[in-house]
């Protein structure tokens, strides 16, 4: 039973802070590189917003249990997001070669995953505290950003289970209220 207190302490150390961007805040624009179906692509938030709302979901690290499950769930829900006119972009601090593999293997080539550099991590306040030494991790935080570039919804929770359902519901609500 001694492992439980140690695990609980580690969970508290690695717990994410609350997302700094709140509903109504202007989402920081960014340009980076990412991948779709293993192919390297440029990612520019302002360009994606021209098509409609964007679901920008940050995940700690590719090829980890919760992140694999979350990517799979987003991939399965892409038809519903597209029907609502939304673009989904996954973001982590992983490098582009890692994300190339992740986009093919875990995202089923259904949406882009992009590398969040220090400015993006700071701008969205998604730096995970207490990650492994020498490795930047991001919190599991999902933002729904309206075409106007403003944050319409935020979900900040380590558990990946509700990110897809809640962001899809937020996008669908945006579509209904237009």
- How far from one another are the termini? 54 Å
Structural class: alpha/beta
Measured by DSSP, the beta-strand proportion falls in 15-25%
Give the helices and strands as they follow along the chain. Answer: HEEHEHEHEHEEH
What is the arithmetic mean of pLDDT?
A: 88
Short description:
The chain has helices at about 5-15, 45-50, 65-85, 95-105, 120-125, 165-175, and strands at about 30-35, 40-45, 55-60, 85-90, 110-115, 140-145, 150-155.
Describe the structure.
- This protein is 37% helix and 21% strand.
- It has 6 helices and 7 strands.
- It has helices at residues 3-13, 45-49, 65-83, 96-105, 118-123, 163-176, and strands at residues 31-36, 39-44, 54-58, 87-92, 112-115, 141-145, 151-156.
- It has a 7-stranded mixed beta sheet with strand order 2-1-5-4-3-6-7.
- Helix 3 (65-83) packs parallel to helix 6.
- The radius of gyration is 16 Å and the shape is globular.
């Amino acid at each position: 039973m001694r492992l439980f207190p140690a695990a609980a302490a580690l969970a508290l150390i690695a717990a994410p802070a609350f997302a700094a961007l709140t509903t109504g805040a202007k989402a920081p624009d960014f340009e980076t590189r990412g991948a779709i179906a293993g192919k390297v692509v440029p990612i520019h938030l302002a360009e994606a917003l021209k098509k409609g709302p964007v679901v920008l979901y940050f995940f700690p690290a590719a090829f980890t249990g919760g992140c694999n499950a979350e990517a799979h769930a987003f991939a399965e829900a892409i038809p519903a997001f597209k029907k609502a006119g939304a673009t989904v972009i996954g973001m982590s601090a992983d490098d582009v070669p890692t994300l190339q593999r992740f986009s093919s293997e875990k995202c089923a080539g259904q949406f882009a995953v992009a590398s969040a550099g220090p400015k993006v991590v700071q701008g969205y306040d998604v730096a995970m505290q207490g990650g492994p030494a020498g490795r930047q991790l991001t919190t599991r935080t999902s933002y729904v950003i309206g075409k106007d570039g403003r944050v319409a919804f935020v979900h900040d929770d380590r558990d990946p289970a509700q990110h897809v359902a809640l962001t899809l519901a937020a996008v669908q609500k945006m579509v209904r209220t237009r």
